[in-house]
Amino acid sequence: RRLKENRSCTAEEFNAAQNQEELSWALSHLRNPKEHPQILLYRYSTCPFCGTAKALLDYAKIPHECVEVEPMFKKEISSFAYKKVPQLQFNVHGYNGPLVVDSEIIVSTLAKHVGMEKQLKDPEVVKWREWARGPMVRLLTLEFNSSLYRAWCGYSYINNIDTIPYANKLFLKIVGAPVMYLVSQYITRPRLLKSGHLHEGEDVKGRLHGEINTFIEKALLGGKKKFHGGSKPDLADLDTYGVLQSVRGHRVYEEIVQSTPIKPWLDSMDKEVGHVGHHG
């Protein structure tokens, strides 16, 4: 049922049906201190694609509120024709404002209004963004859900979300965890094997850490560059950071920090996006 719902309306169709006049006004007033729309980011905390949208919003200092969507029943977005997250709503008149959906479209749309449009066509930026949104997401997903127990632990984040009823939390853990485990094993793993980002019998954690090391070595020139973008983060930095934030606070994240030289970059990114906290 959920798959059918997700396919019922494409992101492009949904976005095209929005009030373009209101959306245009909202986008031109993103950071206007006196007059700007109320912006709501509908997301799952553990969704890497939601993380990419959140990272850009934070970095660009665009005021917004996050709305945690309950993953199984999605009542927070049940009135919308599009059923995936992230979704960014611009409430120009205080409510029921136009939305932009799909993380790639959200980031591209925002980038054009915060002075980062040229990066969307920069081959180096595009290459690392595709890496972050492709193999990195899949390796993280596979390692995060490497066993049924670990998949179950992955849902622990919902314990702290007051808007999700207890019964739903229980249902999510009992039903959601096995689903995520099966998806990771029978959809994510084959995709990684097919793309060559994982080999049969290869240790997933080792490959994940290896990919992080490659990012540091090639995108950051072995740490000589503070960011891929140089002195300031670019969209490649922000996508990579956003993807990693989806597992922050979990075993997978801590192991990455401890086993790779990513910490200085993460600390620098934290400062740029205004994240309060530290690593290790």
From TrEMBL:
Gene3D superfamilies: 1.20.1050.10, Glutaredoxin (3.40.30.10). PROSITE patterns: GLUTAREDOXIN_1 (PS00195), GLUTAREDOXIN_2 (PS51354). Belongs to the GST superfamily. One of its GO terms (cellular component) is mitochondrion. GO terms for biological process: prostaglandin biosynthetic process. This is Putative glutathione-S-transferase/glutaredoxin. Keywords: Lipid metabolism, Transferase. GO terms for molecular function: prostaglandin-E synthase activity; transferase activity. Pfam families: Glutaredoxin (PF00462). Residues 39-90 form the Glutaredoxin domain. It comes from the Eukaryota.
